[in-house]
Amino acid sequence: MAVEVVPLMPVHKKNIEETKGSFGDSYVALFVRMLGLDNDPLDREQAIVALWQYSLGGKKCIDNIMQFQGCINLTVNLLQSESSSACEAAAGLLRSISSVNVYRDVVAESGAIEEITGLLNRLSLTPEVMEQILCALWNLSVDEKLSVKIANPDILPLLIKSLEDEDLRVKEAAAGVLANLTLTHSNHTIMVEAGVIPKLANFLKSAVEEESKVIRKEARNALVELSKNEYYRILVIEEGLVPVPLIGIAPYRSLTPSLHSWPSLPDGSKIERTSKGPSRFGASELLLGLNIDDKNANLEEAKMNAIIGRSKQQFLARSGAIEVEDTKLPQSELSKNKQFTLLPWMDGVARLVLILELEDELSICRAAESIARASINEHLRNSFKEAGAVKNLIQLLDHNSDAIIFAAVGALERLSISNAVCQTIEAEGVIAPLTKMLKNLEMSEGMMEKTLNLLARILDPNRKMKSKFYGGPVNGFKKELDAARGDDDPTGSTRKVYEMPKSKQNIRQDVLAFDVVARLVDMLKHPSLEIQRKVASILEFVATSDSVIDKTISADIESGLLAIFQQVELNELESDVESQLLAIQVEEVGLAVSAASRLLTKLLDLEQFRRTINSAHFTKLLHKILKSNIPLQYKDWVAACLVKIDSLYGPISILEFENPINMEVTLYEKIPRLIEQIRSAFSLEAQEAAVVELNRIISEGMVDATRTVASEGGIFLLVKLIEGGSENAVEAALSILYNLSMDSENHAAFIAAGAVPALRKIIMSERSQWKRALRLLRNLPT
User: Which of 237, 275, 319, 491 is deepest in the core (most CB within 10 A)?
Assistant: First the structure.
């Protein structure tokens, strides 16, 4: 930090120039001797004041003072003085000396940091003293070793508290120290735990005139360093700041908005003109954009924020004032180092969308990546939608740069987590470019995963059913209704939710083309378990109608399903899965197998498919999977598929896989006993143990097990249980009910037991089991 000339306090009655000229270098030794502990306190005070003022003359003066050993120790001792003037002068001298690199270690070794810590705990410090001691720490914190020493639980809370001080210079110094501390990576954890992020973020979110540029600069530098960590970046974004790449002024020159363009909303709708004609230089249009929050505008708040942010950023770009305060480095350095800044969310969202409209490819790519990283909550995802990011990102899918396409897909995939944004993405026509990309045999695995994930989320019928139930706030965010649904009656037919309007059916025709279906079926044989899972989910959503089943059969979907079920040596998994695969691989196998089981279950509803498959082969494979050690929750779907096959084809001889005696005992003794325990248990614990054990039996796919549960009145008991049982009991009960729902003969009992309202209650309350309840509800003829 540069040495600053500070005027002498009035009590000293001498200005700096007079003092510097009143004694030469030869008098330095005299004043150093006057610092001795055996001297009168007043003499010591006058000496330290004189030396502080002398040190402001520059490095040569500081070198003269440092010739005398013990000077630093005596100065540190004076920090304990009861005199504010002496404390200020001692801290000021330490500040001057520590501004010279070679003397920082000497200052630290003298115990200055410890004395400053004690001094900060005083309640009666004047702003002048606080400024000097914090500036001394500011200089010392430049050194990495000393930075680690300063970032301790004793000093950090005091620094953070100083950010709230009324004196501007004190706040600037505290922010400067914290900014320097963030330059040392090992300090980050303790600083975040001390609560530094919210305090610094407040400076960047406040109006420019309320805080000095120094504070804002140091706060931004500190938060930028912390944001380089993925988890801390999320904390920064949650405070309302968005990371925006610094690309330099040059790329913005390609932005040529019309001077006479009238502001419009991101969805393309026009704002009613209130003036007879446009102004010559577009001033009236700009002012309209900046004042769109007028109460008479009759716009949603999100749309107002979008147009205000866009107007501000376009004005900065057109006037050449964009990024002026952020950096002076050339564009090549900015791109090479991937530097970024932090902006309040309204400005940050608008800036990122603006960059998407530029011509510089690297800038576009970095903006799309930033949108993906910033889309951490519903508020920001909706803000990007309102700002027009969706349309720009979809247009980039046709770009000739693979890097830009990858970044755009990643951003759309993150934005689609929001149900409302996902609807907008589909309405903007994203399916056509996505299917075109899927046909590319040279697509990278990473691109393929993101593309499939986005497509699966768009086609997921659960998204539409969920929007049918939510019209109010859930978890703090507004769940928007599906605009294309057209049926607001929550008691209406569940299956009607999946009858898409003709316009949406036309949008999805690209997915139903034979070459796309064939490509998806071929992807079922891909070695990546994640890709297998996503493809199986997509085919479950689209390949279950009479118009598509012929294409899936022609594409040999049976071989694709067998590839997933046979992807590992199941006999090895049965013996010791842990010794063969890592835990995460076992989890991925379970996910892929369960997705394939759901797809097979759906396909079995179609007669054309049932006539073409070898049901006995699938039954044997699924029984092997049930006996493997993949996680139990994934066996639920496998067991449900077996129940479906059994109800359609009848019992298949698989005695080589089952013990007939054990099966008889289970069917006629164990299951009835568990049903009775569920009915008569006095404690939730006993009831939970019984239903969990019953779920384990059903999940093993034993022939006639589900029929026994239904005949014993288990459906009524389980429906009652999901309304008031423990979390584990509800999870197990839903799993059993899902298996029972595979047999259409049980549907009447489901309706009589009141399963539909109970399931809707789980879905609307968004309990942890809502997805399983949603799948079960889809199987019922409500």
Answer: 237
Max CA-CA distance within the chain? 111
Number of Cβ within a 10 Å radius of residue 433 = 19
* β partners of residue 341: 244
| Distance, CA of 719 to CA of 550 (rounded, Å) | 38
564 contacts 534 by C-beta, under 8 angstroms = no
Identify whether the C-beta of residue 387 lies closer than 8 Å to the C-beta of residue 310: yes
Whether the pLDDT of residue 547 is over 80: the answer is no
Is residue 549 within 8 A of residue 542, CB to CB? The reply is: no
Give the closest residue to 639 by CA, choosing from 708, 589, 691, 701.
701
Beta carbons of 411 and 369 less than 8 angstroms apart: yes
Residues 379, 386: contact at Cβ < 8 Å? no
Alpha helices in 439-545 (DSSP H): 445-459, 461-469, 502-507, 509-512, 514-523, 529-542
Q: Residue 216 in contact with residue 323, Cβ under 8 Å?
A: no
3-state secondary structure 519-537: HHHHHCCCCCHHHHHHHHH
Instruction: Write the pLDDT tens digit of every residue in 29-54.
Output: 888 888 888 888 899 999 999 999 99
Q: What is the pLDDT of residues 417-440, one digit of tens each?
A: 998 999 999 999 898 899 889 888
Across 664-681, b (16+ Cβ under 10 Å) vs e yields: eebbeebbbebbebbbee
- The single residue listed with the structure tokens 């499939």 is 452
Contact 691, 729 (CB under 8 A): yes
d(CA 62, CA 123) in angstroms, rounded, equals: 31
H-assigned helices in 23-98: 28-33, 41-55, 59-65, 71-77, 84-98
Q: At what angle do helices 546-554 and 557-565 cross, to 10 degrees?
A: 70
Closest CA to 512 of 604, 423, 438: 438
Rounded to 10°, the helix 361-374/345-356 angle is 140
* Residue 102, number of CB atoms within 10 A of its CB: 11
**Rounded Cα distance, 562 and 771, in Å:** 26
For 277, phi then psi, to 5°, come to: -160, 165
Q: Are residues 644 and 604 in contact, defined by beta-carbon separation less than 8 angstroms?
A: yes
In this predicted structure, the answer to whether residue 573 has a pLDDT above a threshold of 70 is: no
Burial class (CB in 10 A: 0-12, 13-18, 19+), 76: buried
Whole-number Cα distances in Å, 172 to 176, 524, 737: 6, 59, 63
How many other C-beta atoms are found inside a 10 Å radius of the C-beta of residue 288? 19
DSSP 248: -
How far is Cα 375 from Cα 231, in angstroms, rounded to an integer? 14
**Do the beta carbons of residue 529 and residue 587 sit within 8 Å?**
no
pLDDT tens-digit series, residues 283-324: 555 555 555 555 544 467 878 788 788 888 878 877 777 876
In angstroms, the CA 658 to CA 115 distance is: 78
Compute the C-alpha angle 589/592/593, nearest 5°: 85
The one-letter code for the residue type at 618 is F
